[in-house]
């Protein structure tokens, strides 16, 4: 069944393949175009470097007028990522614009890894360490990076 | 002063009307007149919309801006056109200038059709091949629009974007371009061009009328559930007391709560908060605690044993939970609370009550009366139906509708008296005693007696009187007396406020 949301997701997939952004990849799951699996590679020169973080992106029929819900499947230690993998990012909530596509979403999340916003913490422990004890923060992140290779 | 004058005036008017009844003259107005009559308008949805358009036209008589831009400007100035005009002509003021510049730059009242301008979104150049920025599909030039900012979307995408903005959760009266962080505002005039669905168009109209009413200092939605009227006052502060909507609901224009004369908005707010906080707590304390018979501190029993030890620092009293007598050194042997003895202790008990329990009892005294009148008011709602039956019956017996209307009026006055009465208990709870409060209490008693008499007659004796004219005479006498007593107590409190006779307890 073709709906505006599904047609748009096909375009998103095509654009992702034609013009792949660096450091992220994603594709619809095998039997449901409304659920995508994606991978974000940890950006260079950050503690997340070399990590391969898995995410699921779930769309509704209101897409692209409503943002999808994006969740890390890999274990994460980041000031703006909740314990359940949910992400606190303005463009996925109130600053959402229907001009975004999957590629833009994944790129934005990737840059969130390099630039956390410790002032609106989803994980207060990570935010505190990020601000006060950067070495311990990096140690905890490294553990997540290694974990990400296994699962 | 002015308020007092108008109050006196409308009071006279009321009496005139009552005299009309006396002479058996049919009254033109079948509504019960209220103090605020003449100062308020009740508007339906269409009238609200027209009133909004009028306000925009009026301001535009001077400024001549596009209508949608004007609406947003007026919204920012809380629909006070004078303030807006003043600000407009004093644009050298940095802050004002910023507001106007911002709106003028961002409000676009006509769509740029197929204007191939600039770049888009994340810097990709898509303008060359006419691609919609939302569905990413190529579109014909005639089918793609922007707001002059270069963010081009096809008609379908515009329409579903606007629909989502209008009917989605975060209903907002100001819709911006769909592109990230673009501040261009979609003018009201564009909306009908892009949306065919009449339901969505209506929703948009509701959205902007809502912003008109909510932000307008002269207007307020009637808070009664399912009522779609709004009440408009003539000038700020025109109405200090309650207003009555066409649906019959009386509420305070200032705070939106149901009418709370003679209390101020602050007092009723404090009281309601107190009731929410305290009533449950008070009930719990009443049910689960007792006062230590020696020091009077409030004690909760935390185990099955009835031998209580007061843990209050200076006390340490041992006593029996059941009969509150001192626990002897030998326990149960010297203690017999199973036998019924007329106790002497109860007499002295009051002296030992702590202040907190006295305060609590005082609160419960007033609260129970307040709650009781609320309960009565609920029960008396049934009277409306009963009275209607009676009126129908009278109709059937060749009494005209206008003639029979005294019954409806009596029920309405009964409701108002109850409303005033329950609020007087809140007033009495907060006010400090002085000579004026003695008069107040007398007035309160009079009103209460009069109200109960009217209620009793309407509930029980209505069917006993066969003679309609006798019944009418009785009901008229009763409700007129009630209404007089209500006015007396309200005026007395009001007068006390203007003469600063009242002082209130800190709570």
Describe this structure in words.
The complex is a heterodimer of chains A (151) and B (507). With 151 residues, chain A is an alpha+beta fold. Chain A has a single domain (4-149), classed as Ubiquitin Conjugating Enzyme, CATH 3.10.110. Chain A is 36% helix and 18% strand. A 4-stranded antiparallel β-sheet of chain A has the order 1-2-3-4. In chain A, a hairpin with a 2-residue loop joins strand 1 and strand 2. In chain A, helix 3 crosses helix 4. Chain B has 507 residues and is mainly α. Chain B has 2 domains: 46-217, 2-Layer Sandwich (Herpes Virus-1); 284-498, Up-down Bundle (Four Helix Bundle (Hemerythrin (Met), subunit A)), CATH 1.20.120.1750. In chain B, strand 4 (144-146) and strand 5 (153-154) form a beta hairpin. In chain B, helix 2 runs parallel beside helix 4 (81-89). Chain A: This is E2 ubiquitin-conjugating enzyme. Chain A: Its EC number is 2.3.2.23.
List the topology elements.
The complex is a heterodimer of chains A (151) and B (507).
Chain A: H1 4-18, E1 24-29, E2 32-41, E3 52-58, E4 69-72, H2 102-114, H3 124-132, H4 134-150
Antiparallel strand pairs in A: 1-2, 2-3, 3-4
Helix pairs in contact in A: 3-4
Chain B: H1 2-22, E1 40-43, H2 45-63, H3 67-76, H4 81-89, H5 94-106, E2 107-108, E3 112-113, E4 144-146, E5 153-154, H6 155-167, E6 185-186, H7 191-194, H8 198-214, E7 219-221, E8 230-233, E9 242-244, E10 250-252, H9 265-288, E11 289-291, E12 298-300, E13 307-309, E14 318-320, H10 345-352, H11 355-396, H12 401-404, H13 406-430, H14 435-461, H15 468-498
Parallel strand pairs in B: 2-6
Antiparallel strand pairs in B: 1-8, 3-4, 4-5, 7-8, 9-10, 11-12, 13-14
Helix pairs in contact in B: 2-3, 2-4, 2-8, 11-13, 13-14, 13-15, 14-15
């Amino acid at each position: 069944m073709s709906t505006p949301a599904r047609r748009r997701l096909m375009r998103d997939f095509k654009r992702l393949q034609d013009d792949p952004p660096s450091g992220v990849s994603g594709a619809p799951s095998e039997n449901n175009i409304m659920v995508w699996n994606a991978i974000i590679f940890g950006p260079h020169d950050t503690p997340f470097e070399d990590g391969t973080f898995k995410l699921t992106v779930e769309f509704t029929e209101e897409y692209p007028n409503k943002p999808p819900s994006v969740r890390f499947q890999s274990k994460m230690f980041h000031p703006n990522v909740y314990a359940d993998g949910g992400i606190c990012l303005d463009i996925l909530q109130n600053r959402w614009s229907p001009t975004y596509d999957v590629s833009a979403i994944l790129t934005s999340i990737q840059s969130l890894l390099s630039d956390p916003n410790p002032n609106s913490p989803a994980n207060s422990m990570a935010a505190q360490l990020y601000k006060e004890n950067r070495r311990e923060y990096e140690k905890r992140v490294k553990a997540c990076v290694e974990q990400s290779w296994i699962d | 002063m002015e308020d007092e004058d108008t109050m006196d005036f409308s009071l006279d008017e009321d009496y005139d009307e009552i005299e009309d009844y006396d002479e058996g003259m049919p009254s033109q107005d079948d509504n019960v007149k209220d103090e605020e009559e003449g100062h308020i308008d009740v508007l339906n949805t269409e009238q609200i919309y027209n009133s909004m358009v009028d306000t925009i036209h009026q301001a535009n008589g001077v400024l001549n801006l596009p209508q949608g831009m004007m609406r947003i400007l007026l919204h920012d100035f809380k629909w006070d056109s004078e303030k807006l005009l003043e600000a407009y002509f004093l644009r050298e003021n940095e802050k004002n200038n910023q507001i106007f510049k911002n709106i003028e730059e961002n409000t676009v009242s006509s769509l740029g059709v197929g204007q191939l301008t600039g770049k888009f979104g994340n810097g990709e150049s898509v303008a060359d091949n006419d691609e919609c920025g939302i569905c990413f599909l190529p579109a014909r030039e005639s089918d793609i629009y922007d707001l002059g900012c270069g963010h081009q979307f096809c008609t379908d995408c515009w329409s579903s974007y606007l629909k989502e903005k209008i009917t989605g959760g975060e209903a907002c009266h100001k819709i911006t371009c769909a592109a990230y962080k673009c501040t261009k505002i979609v003018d009201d005039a564009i909306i009908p061009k892009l949306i065919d669905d009449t339901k969505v168009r209506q929703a948009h109209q509701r959205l902007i009328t809502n912003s008109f009413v909510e932000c307008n200092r002269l207007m307020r939605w009637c808070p009664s559930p399912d009522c779609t009227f709004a009440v408009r006052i003539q000038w700020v502060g025109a109405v200090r007391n309650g207003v009555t909507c066409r649906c019959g609901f009386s509420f305070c224009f200032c705070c939106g709560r149901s009418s709370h004369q003679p209390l101020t908005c602050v007092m009723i707010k404090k009281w309601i908060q107190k009731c929410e906080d305290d009533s449950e707590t008070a009930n719990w304390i009443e049910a689960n605690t007792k006062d230590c018979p020696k020091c009077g501190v409030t004690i909760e029993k935390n185990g099955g044993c009835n031998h209580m030890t007061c843990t209050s620092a200076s006390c340490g009293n041992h006593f029996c939970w059941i009969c509150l007598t001192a626990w002897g050194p030998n326990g149960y042997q010297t203690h017999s609370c199973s036998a019924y003895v007329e106790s002497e202790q109860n007499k002295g008990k009051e002296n030992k009550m702590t202040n907190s329990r006295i305060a609590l009892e005082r609160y419960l005294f007033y609260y129970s009366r307040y709650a009781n009148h609320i309960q009565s008011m609920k029960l008396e709602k049934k009277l409306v139906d009963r009275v209607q039956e009676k009126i129908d019956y009278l109709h059937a017996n060749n009494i005209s509708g206008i003639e029979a209307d005294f019954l409806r009026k009596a029920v309405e006055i009964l409701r108002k008296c109850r409303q005033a009465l329950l609020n007087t208990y809140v007033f009495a709870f907060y006010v400090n005693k002085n000579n004026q409060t003695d008069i107040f209490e007398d007035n309160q008693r009079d009103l209460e007696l009069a109200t109960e008499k009217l209620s009793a007659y309407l509930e029980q004796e209505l069917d006993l009187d066969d003679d309609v004219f006798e019944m009418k005479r009785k009901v008229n006498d009763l409700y007129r007396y009630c209404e007089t007593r209500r006015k007396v107590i309200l005026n007395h409190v009001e007068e006390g406020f203007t003469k600063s006779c009242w002082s209130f307890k800190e709570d």
